[in-house]
Amino acid sequence: MIGRGMKPILRRSLLLGAVLLGAAVPVIAAPSLDTHRIARDRFGNDAPWYENRIPFFESADPKLDAVYYYRWSLYRAHQRDLGAEGYISTEFLDDVGWQLEPYASLNDATGFHLAEGRWLRDRRSADDYIDFMYRRGNDRHFTDYMADSVYARFLVDGDRAAATRHLAAMRRLYDAWNDHFDSSKGLYWVEPLLDATEYTISSIDASGGKDGFRGGDSFRPSINAYMYANARAIGRLSTMVGDHEGAEDFSTRAQAIKVRVQRDLWSPALGHFIDRYKVDNTFVKYWAPIRGRELVGYLPWTFDLADDDDRLAGAWTHLLDRGGLSGAAGMRTVEPSYPYYMRQYRYELGAPECQWNGPNWPFQTTQVLTGMVNLLDHYRQSKVTRGDYMRLLRQYAALHYQGDKLDIEEDYHPETGKPIVGLARSHHYFHSGYADLILTGLVGIRPRADDVLEVNPLLPDAEDPQALRWFRMQDVPYHGHSVAVTWDVDGRHYGGRPGLTIEIDRKRVAHRATLGRMIVPITRLATPPIERPIDRAVQLVRGQFPKASASSGTDPENLHDGIDGRIWFFSELANGWSSAPSPDAQWYQVDFGTDVDVSRAELAFFDDRQDFAVPKSLRFEVWDGRRWTALRARGGDPIANGITHARWPRVSVRKIRVSFAQPLAKRTRLVEFKLY
Question: The whole model's pTM is what?
Answer without folding.
Answer: 0.96
